[in-house]
Specification:
single chain, two-stranded antiparallel ribbon
């Protein structure tokens, strides 16, 4: 009996003719026959392993179908209609479906790794190459900028420009949507009718997962860009000290914006404007003097109980206190803000922040430095800052009380709890009390702890922490930090911060070891400041050493006294007037 391939008239899907022919061994034929019921039933060829039909079977199918149609009946089911596919055919179809599933998964992942890469291997290949070209061009442009400026400087250059942040957010949003769309389109373009239900569900789940892998980081980047833009717009536009003059160290616009600036002095204030206080008390006062070419920084720390501080001649309080702020133990450095803003506000008409302006002028008189910029941190915000950073690790050297007071006999009472000695992770509440507590010590011990805390916080900063905690840190900055750095100077400041981070930060605190806080010599303070900035000005003290001799006592016979070589004892402890590394404050 002559074997015939299945006539094209009974093909279910001509689009798969080539593939099916490969399975059955007959190119262009799906190798299945119609039964009397009109269904397609395969038959196996013992010689080729393919599916064939005989001429009589074809005629029987046609006659049966015609008879049923003429009788108006439906096609009857026969045993041929329920005949299963041969095992060899099923195995080949399973292998083909598995290959199609692997191809779809691979191309979907490829589009996740690089936008549009997998799409180029589908019927949407033209669109895929367009997306690949756009992504490659964008990547090349970003890489060129990062290579030219360095990764940190390039990121900061965008992070301090509100306009650039808005553009970055828009590009990230559009790019993320296009990327996610290319992933989903790759999935749709690689789905095949041969895939079974399990494979289809699995591939859909994979494509959704890949879309989330791209969408979540993109959405986070857009959110952070908008938060940063809000912080820049709020933080650097809220303080007007009325102090901008020709002496301010402003960066230029060249390749190195700080090339023509010899020194930048920044006033750092920790203020405590509590509900139980009228006005502001500045519990922490420091001047950071920065050498902009190298980033080397010296932190000058002034005690809150410094007396007889001088007012500038141009300040209205100079007429009241021409010989300095001399009115007893209440006239301390940390009371200057309150004296100007609360007690004599009528003398500062037209000045927006008389307390801050007066304190700035007083510190310039004390140090001999011109203060170029000012940054104020509310101590309440300091607690939130430490919490947002996940705490700070401190080696506590002494037992410190939280709360409490001293009675007339000098005894402590009302202590809520204690910070115990030892290395420990302090949260914001305990870190604030570590920096403020002074009942069991004094103002100078507190100054040392404050410098230690500043150094530990700077050393603890890392990119991962800043990114993971950034929304909380940004909110803390908006609510508790003020500065008069102009927004237009922020790109140059980004470069300066990078230099400071890579340089050494030293500290010089004015304590009873080098001054008399009750009756200080401001000439001596200014001299120590100059020598700390320029060590060549230091006059080395005359050194003398006293030889020490050891003489042996004669025993039986008188012998000449034997003397050892004189020895001189030296120490590496710097003098109190010399700056030390900030880490040494701990």
């Amino acid at each position: 009996m002559r074997r015939l391939p299945t006539p094209p008239a009974i093909h279910e899907d001509r689009s798969t003719r080539h593939t099916e022919g490969a399975v059955t061994g007959y190119r262009g034929s799906r190798g299945r026959t119609k039964t009397a019921a009109g269904r397609i039933t395969p038959r196996a060829d013992n010689r080729t392993g393919g599916t064939v039909v005989t001429r009589d079977e074809v005629h029987n199918v046609q006659d049966t179908n015609a008879r049923h149609r003429s009788q108006g009946g439906s096609l009857a089911m026969t045993s041929d209609a329920r005949r299963p596919l041969p095992e060899g055919v099923r195995a080949r179809r399973r292998l083909a479906a598995a290959r199609l599933a692997r191809r779809s998964a691979t191309l979907t992942v490829l589009s996740t790794i690089f936008p549009g890469a997998g799409l180029t291997q589908t019927r949407f290949y033209r669109l895929g190459w367009i997306i690949v070209t756009l992504a490659a061009g964008t990547t090349a442009a970003v890489a060129a900028v990062v290579f030219a400026k360095g990764p940190t400087a390039a990121a900061l250059a965008v992070a301090v420009r509100p306009g650039a942040l808005l553009i970055a957010a828009a590009l990230l949003l559009l790019g993320g949507l296009l990327w996610v769309w290319s992933i989903w389109l790759t999935h749709r373009g690689t789905m095949h009718a041969r895939l079974d239900r399990v494979q289809r569900v699995g591939l859909r789940a994979l494509s959704v997962l890949m879309c989330l892998v791209v969408a979540v980081p993109m959405a986070t980047a857009v959110r952070y860009s908008l938060i940063q833009r809000d912080v820049i717009g709020t933080l650097f536009a809220q303080v007007d000290l009325d102090q901008t003059d020709g002496g301010t160290a402003r960066p230029g616009g060249g390749a190195d914006p700080w090339a023509d600036v010899s020194r930048v002095n920044v006033l750092l204030l920790g203020s405590d404007a509590g509900d139980d206080r009228i006005g502001v008390r500045t519990d922490s006062m420091m001047i950071a003097s920065i050498e902009p070419r190298t980033g080397q920084t010296i932190l000058f720390s002034f005690p809150r109980n410094l007396q007889n501080v001088p007012f500038p001649v141009t300040n209205p309080l100079y007429k009241i206190y021409p010989k300095g702020y001399t009115c007893g133990s209440e006239c301390l450095l940390n009371a200057v803000w309150h004296e100007a803003e609360v007690n004599h506000a009528e003398l500062f008409k037209g000045t927006k922040q008389p307390g801050l302006a007066t304190l700035k002028g007083v510190l310039q008189e004390i140090s001999g430095l011109h203060i170029d910029y000012t940054t104020i941190v509310d101590l309440k915000g300091f607690e939130a800052l430490v919490n947002a950073m996940g705490g700070v690790v401190i080696n506590v050297k002494e037992k410190l009380p939280i709360g409490g007071h001293l009675n007339a006999a000098g005894n402590i009472y009302g202590v809520d709890s204690w910070i115990q000695p030892g290395v420990q992770l302090l949260d914001g509440f305990h870190a604030l009390w570590y920096a403020r507590s002074r009942i069991t010590s004094d103002d100078f011990g507190r100054m040392r702890r404050q410098r230690c805390l500043v150094g530990k916080l700077i050393g603890q900063v890392n990119v991962g922490t800043m990114l993971s905690k950034y929304p909380a840190l940004a909110q803390v900055a908006k609510d508790n930090v003020q500065t008069d750095i102009p927004p237009t100077d922020l790109p140059a400041w980004a470069e300066l911060v990078t230099r400071v981070k890579g340089a050494t930060i030293s500290s010089l605190a004015f304590t009873p070891d080098n001054i008399n806080p009750g009756n200080p010599s401001f000439v001596a303070i200014r001299r120590m400041v100059r020598e700390a900035i320029d060590p060549s000005l230091v006059v080395p003290p005359s050194t003398t050493s006293t030889p020490s001799t050891t003489t042996k006592t004669p025993t039986k016979k008188p012998t000449p006294t034997s003397t050892k070589t004189p020895s001189t004892t030296t120490t590496n402890t710097p003098p109190p007037s010399a700056p030390v590394d900030l880490e040494d404050a701990c």
